Amino acid sequence: MKSILITGASSGIGFATAKLFKEYGYRVFTICRKQADADRLQKMGFESYCVDVCDYEAIDRVFEAIESSTTLDIVFNNAGYGQPGALEDISIKAIKEQFETNFFALYYITQKSIALMRKQNYGGKIIQHSSILGLVSLRFRGAYNASKYAVEGVCDTLRLELHNTNIKIITLNTGPVMSSFRENAFKAFEKNIDKERSLYKEAYKKELTQRLQGKGNAPFTISSEDAAQIVLKIAQSKNPKPRYYITYAATLLGVLKRILPTKWLDFILLKI
């Protein structure tokens, strides 16, 4: 039985992926930040851990538990959140918190995964959940953009450093997917941004707050279940691609990033 470790598995793509892989007979290890979510997943038959991905000692214990009971074939680094707001309004503390979850935790888990897969001596797949915002930037997403650009740099480098091994690094560049991402982003916005004193106060009211609290979905939005199918496709592929664009919007922006002059791309991005 093959196994997979999924971070950020309490909802959205992580939860959908966990359910799908269990249906396909994988042994699924999940990491959730809240005990209630870990308990819920355990009742559903998953081997779930209540761990903050930024707690490296706790992450060590998870890897020790997995190693003592099975081999680890796939790691899906899915945990992350968005910190909205203009960069002028985001404190050093808030952007450090963004990087701690989106980048440093992913980096640490990736190192642990590589070490274990080398020890197992037959390789594995590490699937990194980046974003299309790791390739292009949008207003008021600067902290998130920066954290995902960092993920891109690590993935691009690891592909080169691991090219002669059986350890595969795969990057997911997602666009709009139905999940609790916007709800969590709004909480981070309310917590860390003093919008009443901001020079962007009116812009926040007209576009950012409306977008984060909106009940509709952006164009070309797909379900978390559809995104999970792509993760399964990667797991089942003998030779997966190094990068997968998820949603038409992500594919389009990825192409425009490669072919357009910077000024032309900026013009388009300002309209989004």
Account of the protein in words:
The structure is a single chain. By secondary structure, this protein is α/β, with parallel strands linked by helices. It has a single domain (3-269), classed as 3-Layer(aba) Sandwich (Rossmann fold). Helix content is 52%, strand content 14%. It has helices at residues 12-23, 35-43, 56-69, 92-120, 142-161, 181-192, 201-213, 224-236, 248-259, 262-269; strands at residues 3-7, 27-32, 47-50, 74-77, 124-129, 167-174, 243-246. The protein has a seven-stranded parallel sheet, with helices on both faces. Strand 4, helix 4 (92-120) and strand 5 form a beta-alpha-beta unit. Helix 3 (56-69) packs parallel to helix 4 (92-120). The longest helix is centred in the middle third of the chain and has 29 residues, at 92-120.
Q: Into which percent range does the helicity of residues fall?
A: 40-55%
Cross-sheet strand order for the largest sheet: 3-2-1-4-5-6-7
Instruction: Please tell me the overall pLDDT.
Output: 95
How many domains? The number is: 1
Strand count, sense and barrel status of the largest sheet are: 7 strands, parallel
